[in-house]
Amino acid sequence: VAGLEGTGHHAWSEVWRSCAQSSSSSPCHLEEKLSCALYNNNTANLSLFLGFRQSTDQNLKVEEEIIGLFGECKKKQNAALFILNTVRESWNSGVCRTGMMSFPNFDGLDKTLQRPDVVQLAQLAEISQADLRILVLLRPTQQIIASTTKKRKFSDGNKLLEIAVLEANAHALYSQLRQLDPKFVICFDAYEHAIEASSFDGRTRLGAFLHPSLNATDNARSHWNASMSKIKKRNIPGDWYEPTPRGVQTPLQKLNAAVSLIADYCQLNNLTIR
User: Fold this and answer.
1) Do the Cβ atoms of 244 and 252 come closer than 8 Å?
2) How far apart are CA 115 and CA 163, in angstroms?
3) pLDDT, tens only, 49-97
4) What single DSSP character describes residue 125?
5) What is the DSSP string of 131-195?
6) What is 190-246 written as a DSSP string?
7) What pTM did the predictor assign?
8) Residue 99, Ramachandran bin (φ over 0: left; ψ between -120 and 50: alpha; else beta)
């Protein structure tokens, strides 16, 4: 799952947990070891997406570890959907702190650089002959800002700082998507369809993209619909949409332009579920 901070990663956490628990035949599996190797905010541990903190030799070591973990997943279950992020609640203690792996991920001095690299991940998946799928999360800019600065107080509630960090990460995500084969990418604004999540026609396309067995039988479709229904409509309180001061207008316009690049990429490649 690839998306800016504030685009709904926690909502998808509920979907994957429900999918993994819905039936013994469900393809959904929560993969802790591989996720921890991708992102571990504990500085004592190496991880792929924090390579800027590590030496070249350390990064090569992590890449080899991940190739091996992809191989282990294939041995465990030849036809499974392994969820690599957005399920941090059960893995955020002890030595492994994955977060949601959003763009960016966690606060801190290096916040702008703390983000996934789906291009690097795709390259390692190809070496491992693993079939990688990228679900890109879309959301209107004003809702992203309301979620990150008003609701959750990221960047200590500093709206200008959060806008600047999000703009940099929106450009990073867009750049990464441009380097991927679009057939492995799909885009979705879950909140746009949340009220009808359990009956929304696009869930068939999404399920088929993620794993064919999610729609293979009536029973499988029923379980997938039930999992999708975990995404609830977000009613943004009116007071979250504060008047935009003059000093914030230009940075917000720049962020909106960067967010639009991602949405336009999805639309131009016919990847957006409607």
Assistant:
1) yes
2) 16
3) 999 999 999 999 999 999 999 999 988 866 689 999 998 654 455 658 8
4) H
5) ---EEEE---HHHHHIIIIIIS-GGGG-HHHHHHHHHHHHHHHHHHHHTS-GGGEEEE-GGGGGG
6) GGGGGGGTTT-THHHHHHHHH-GGGGSSHHHHHHHHHHHTTSPP----GGGS----H
7) 0.91
8) left
